[in-house]
Amino acid sequence: EVHLLESGGGLVQPGGTLRLSCAASGFTFSGYTMSWVRQAPGKGLEWVSSSSGSGVVTHYADSVKGRFTISRDNSKDTLFLQMDNLRAEDMAIYYCAKEAIPFLESYFDYWGQGTLVTVSS
Amino acid sequence: EIVLTQSPGTLSLSPGERATLSCRASQSVSSSFLAWYQQKPGQAPRLLIYGASNRATAIPDRFSGSGSETDFTLTISRLEPEDFALYFCQQYATSPWTFGQGTKVEIK
Fold first, then answer.
1. Taking residues B65-92, what's their average pLDDT?
2. Which of A66, A41, A61 is nearest to A49 (CA)?
3. Which of A30, A32, A57, A58 would give a disulfide with A52, using CB separation of 3.0 to 4.6 Å?
C-alpha cells in the first residue's frame, strides 16, 4: 500500500527558512516523479514543484522559483522541499503527491495528509 | 499557463440527485490530460478521474467524466451522503500543472 508522510511544517517568520520532508513507502520511489502541491487556508490547490525519479529534472511554479528547492534521497525514499525567504503568501498546507505513471509527468494518484506551514511574525 | 475555471462554485443538491460539474480550460488540453479530485474537510485530495474519462481504482461507477479540448464535465449520477465534498479539476498536459478553483457540492 502506498503511503506518503509529510513532516517539517511549523511557524516561521517572514524571510525565514523551513525544510519539508515526505517519507514514501509501498512503491518503487525512484521510478516516479514526485511533487509538492499546496493549499492556502480555505483556498484551492496550487502545484509548487516536481522532481523526476532520478532527481535530475526539476520544475518550479513561478511563485516559488529562486526561493524553494526540491530534492530527493532515493536511498531513503524521501522527498524534500527547502523553502527559503518565506512570505506570508506561502502559508498553506503542503502536500506531497505521487505522479501516477512511471518515468512520466502525469496526474497525482496518491497524496500525503499534508503539513501546515504558517508564516507570521 | 492554462487557466481552469470550474462552475458552479457551489452546487446544492439532495441525496439521490444528479450532480453535473463543469471545468473549462483557457486553451485546449491536449490528449484530454485532465483529472478530477475529491476533497473532504481535513483530508487530502483523492483521485477520481484521469484522462478526462477514466475512473481511478476503487472509484464507484456513479462517478463519470467526459469532455475534450476546453470543456470537461464530472457527473455524479446519484449522490450518496459521502459524495458531499469539494471537487477540483487539474490539467497535466502543459507545465505548470494547474487546478480549477473548485466546486463545492453541498446538501440542500
1. 97
2. A61
3. A57
